[in-house]
Each structure stands twice: as C-alpha cells, then as structure tokens.
Amino acid sequence: MLYNWETRNFMIQGVKLDVEEFQKSEDALVYRAEWLTTGFDKSTKGTRLKLTVEMQIKNAGQLRTELQAKFYGEQEAQHVCWGNALTFLEYECKTSENSTFVDKIKETYR
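^ that's the sequence the OP posted. Answer follows.
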C-alpha cells in the first residue's frame, strides 16, 4: 500500500526534472520525466559514468541510488547500435518508521 506518497523532487546528476504523474494505483505510482544528455562529455574507452538518481517522496523520505552509463559522441552512430537507450526505471521500495530514507528492494531498467 502506498499510503499518501507523492514524488516532490526527481533529480539525475543534480539536474531537477519536471515529473508528471502518469498512473496511480493502491500499490504503484508511475511518473514520466525526460532527461537530456546534451552537454555530457563522451566516455573514454573502458569507462562508465556513475549517475546519481535522487527522489524526494512526500510522507516517505528520500531515495538515492546510482546508475552506470556510457556516453558516445553524436557522430558515433556505430557504437549506439551496440547499446540500448534507457527508457524505463522501476524501483520497488519500502520505508521504516524511524528512517528518513526509502530503501530500494528491487530495480528494473529497460
């Protein structure tokens, strides 16, 4: 059960995103947001960038996690064919009465 949860802030790498509530049920909240990677330097060979993802959830606390990503230059179309664009994040979470943090139980990326 979700109680009275609502996402207040959603940030990736310190950039606050505009979120729109897409779907709500007794056991799930779904939001949409768009994050542009314009301005990020391309990753060097063999490296990945750790992206910090933060959500402030009303009546629950803060969820903070990291994603690992590789960025390619706009002209490197061949490399883009090897990977997949990230279009979906799903977090199954829980809270504790004595904590201001939301614990992540499971995560799914698509």
